[in-house]
Specification:
This protein has eight helices and 18 strands. The chain is α+β, with helices and mostly antiparallel strands.
Amino acid sequence: MPGVGWEFVMSVVDEVRDAIRGWSIPEALRAYAEGAYAWDGTCSGRMGELDAEGLAATFSYQIHLQTTKIADESQVRLGASKHRGLPHLPRDMPWPDHLFFEAQIDLAELARVDISGRLPDSGMLYFWQSNRHGTLVQRWVGDPSELEVRPYPSELDDAKYYLRDFRDRPATLRFEPAWLFYINDGDASDYRGLRDVLPPERVEEVSRALGAELCGRSSGFRLYGRPQYWQGEDEGDEPVGFDDDGQPIWGESKPRLLLLQTELGDAVIHFWCDPEQAARGDFTGAWSGFSGT
């Protein structure tokens, strides 16, 4: 069980990826993929001749986040999954200095639909960010009765620029699992062309195993998957972590999980974490990156 202690257990998602490695690749799929852009979980580039191993490398199971606007914060269940607005914090948890509240996720609620086992199945996960003061991801485990709706602090850097976007646009969240192969003609969100050349019987087989639908478009607001970039940055150009002095560590030697992708104005924000630490419920090393137009 995630969060109890790290031990690799093959999830249904891993089993599906393993099964894809045994597929026979139809000619229509092979022709579509040749020369297309593909993302293999580490970096993207032009694809040569497609084989089953290459197809499995581009397979992604992700959780799309759907929002419902909140008219009255007081009517939202304490501990509900929500985006921006006012956080539900334990009474003894201080507001992080100069950070804006991005989201809170009820991990038990998420676990009911997320079969990947990448995150703990209990507690609350809080996301905080600031253009000048960085990123913070916190996990809290306790009884929802310990939570309270917390107003924004009166002193907050850059409040005049961002407070309206964060505090005044609250929404509840619901989770929709989806899957796709990251192969397309260059649009990092549109995968309808590939969907049209996949064997229908294989699509049905994977959808049934995952309890999720094949999506034609990758959501900009989601957990997991490929990071979207507006300026065509190479995925390898983001730091994979930071050293003790706060300096970025570059390269692809460290595994990383796209914990959350969200948007702010014209920018896409990426919250990253170490996948093994995340499964243990440890998010102290989480970091962020962004791409703007």
